[in-house]
Amino acid sequence: MGLFKNIFGSSSNTKEETKAIPWKSLDSTTQLEDIAKASKGKTQVIFKHSTTCGISRMVLNMFNGSYAVEEGALDLYYLDLHAHREVSNEVAVRFQVMHQSPQLLVIKNGTVVLHTSHGSISEVDLNQYV
Fold it and tell me: Where are the alpha helices (DSSP H) in 39-78?
C-alpha cells in the first residue's frame, strides 16, 4: 500500500511536511575527487537521474517524498545523465560501479558502500550511512 500511496498520493486531507532536499549539482568530473575526499569525513550520496525516463522520474519523486535525513548530515549530489553524460561515465570508472539509471551511490572513506537502482532506491535508509 505504501508504494501506491507514494505514487498516487494519500486520500487523507492532512498536509504532511516534506523536507527540501539540499541537492548539489554534479556537473563536472573534477567534483568526483572532491566527493571522494569529502567522504572521509562525511557521507556523500550521488543520485543519477535520467530526465527522459518515466521510471527514473517516479523513483526521484518517491525519494523526494521519503527523504528524512537530518540537515547537514550528508552531502547529496544530483546528476542529470543527459546533460552530463561524461560525468556519469566517470562516476562508473572512478567508483567501480556499473552505470544504471536511476541509480543511488553512497560513498564513505573514498569507496562506494552501497549502490542500488530503480525501485530499490526507495528502500534505502540513508540514516544508517550517516
Answer: 54-66
